[in-house]
Amino acid sequence: MSNLPLRAVKVDEGLILRSSGDVIDGVEIRRAKVIPDERGRLGEIMRADDPWFEKFGQVYFTTTYPGIVKAWHFHKKQTDHFYVPKGLIKVALYDERKESSTYGTVNQIYLGEHCPGLVRIPPGIQHGWMCVGNEEAYIINIVSEMYDYNSPDEYRTGPHDNHIPYDWERKDG
């Protein structure tokens, strides 16, 4: 597997995407609205009047330990929206939709408590993440579909030995 070179693309205030091309068609990334005051912070993740909002399926959270990769998978119907309130992850996306104008493109973005943002991942995009901080990361996912225990809309690819031109290894330098 060869790694595609990733260049920096600013997508929103304070959020930098690394990409082998353009932002993948249908992927949206924006800074989360965080409002601090003397009592603490309030953070808006998603609202029904957001331009991305399709419909509500469910909200769940998952955690990932430092150095662990949770990848790759995609959905045929479901849209994911990731937000990371605690810890730090790098999210990788791969456009495997042959009909897409960004077919074959890899995107990578960091999300976490110090770079609050929301990433929208449409159906058909292979995606996953790695916890790159030194503490457990908490990921909130707002999905468009409810999980169907009898027929899950989840299709998996191995994290390392696969056809996706992305390497999860840390890049020192």
UniProtKB/TrEMBL annotation:
Q: Which GO terms describe its biological process?
A: polysaccharide biosynthetic process
Catalytic activity, reaction form: dTDP-4-dehydro-6-deoxy-alpha-D-glucose = dTDP-4-dehydro-beta-L-rhamnose
Segments crossing the lipid bilayer: none
Pfam families assigned to the protein according to its UniProt record, in alphabetical order: Polysacc_synt_C
Q: What is its EC number?
A: 5.1.3.13
Provide GO CC annotations from the record. cytosol
Q: Name one GO molecular function term.
A: dTDP-4-dehydrorhamnose 3,5-epimerase activity
Recorded hits in InterPro entries, A to Z, give: CapF_C, RmlC-like, RmlC-like_jellyroll, RmlC_Cupin_sf
Capsular polysaccharide assembling protein CapF C-terminal domain: which residues?
Answer: 37-155
Q: Which domain of life is it from?
A: Bacteria
The signal sequence is none
Identify the residue position(s) of the site Participates in a stacking interaction with the thymidine ring of dTDP-4-oxo-6-deoxyglucose: 147
What this protein is reported to do is described as: Catalyzes the epimerization of the C3' and C5'positions of dTDP-6-deoxy-D-xylo-4-hexulose, forming dTDP-6-deoxy-L-lyxo-4-hexulose.
The name this protein carries in UniProt is dTDP-4-dehydrorhamnose 3,5-epimerase
Origin organism is Anaerohalosphaera lusitana
